[in-house]
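In the design runs reported in the main text, the only information available to the sequence generator was the tokenized backbone. The following block is the verbatim input for one such run; it is reproduced so that readers can re-run the procedure and compare outputs position by position.
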């Protein structure tokens, strides 16, 4: 199933990168400051790894590793799965699903040009949400705590908002509500 949208239409153009000798603690701070769930590890212009929030929790925090003294290269994922910017976003999502990952570096002519996330895909093609729900390994607890802050998708403009308003059987954001 092709969507007509290419990876380059949805990807983050300037992903956040860090050097391999950056501490895990500093990586966490960079993620928090930039509101991202993954960092790409580069040596010069070469992509050599990726680190996600889950990697930090599972491979450092849960193991009692000193995150201030340990370099990210010791826990980063080195076997990278990437995608070409001309690929259809459906193919990217299938690749993510099959590898059980949520972040795909975008490589063109052996050069890092972006990062594609599931959220990037769903922002421009929310219909693919069913594929995400049906196919990704769900690792959630049965009785997951409910957080008060949740982003939902406006059914008119497709943007994620914390608050939506019911109008004519749809959930819409404040901006779309004003324009109706």
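Verbatim output:
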């Amino acid at each position: 199933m092709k969507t007509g949208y290419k990876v380059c239409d949805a990807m983050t153009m300037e992903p956040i990168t860090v050097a391999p000798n950056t501490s895990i603690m500093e990586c966490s701070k960079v993620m928090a400051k930039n509101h991202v769930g993954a960092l790409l590890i580069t040596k010069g212009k070469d992509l050599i790894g990726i680190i996600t929030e889950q990697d930090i929790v599972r491979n450092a925090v849960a193991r009692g590793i000193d995150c201030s003294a340990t370099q990210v290269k010791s826990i980063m994922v080195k076997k990278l799965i990437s995608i070409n910017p001309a690929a259809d976003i459906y193919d990217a999502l299938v690749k993510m699903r099959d590898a059980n990952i949520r972040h795909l570096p975008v490589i063109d002519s052996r050069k890092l040009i972006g990062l594609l996330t599931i959220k990037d895909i769903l922002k421009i093609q929310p219909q693919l949400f069913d594929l995400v729900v049906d196919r990704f390994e769900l690792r959630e607890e049965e009785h997951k705590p409910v957080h008060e802050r949740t982003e939902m998708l406006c059914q008119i403009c497709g943007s994620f908002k914390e608050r939506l308003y019911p109008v004519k059987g749809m959930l819409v954001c404040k901006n779309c509500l004003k324009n109706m």
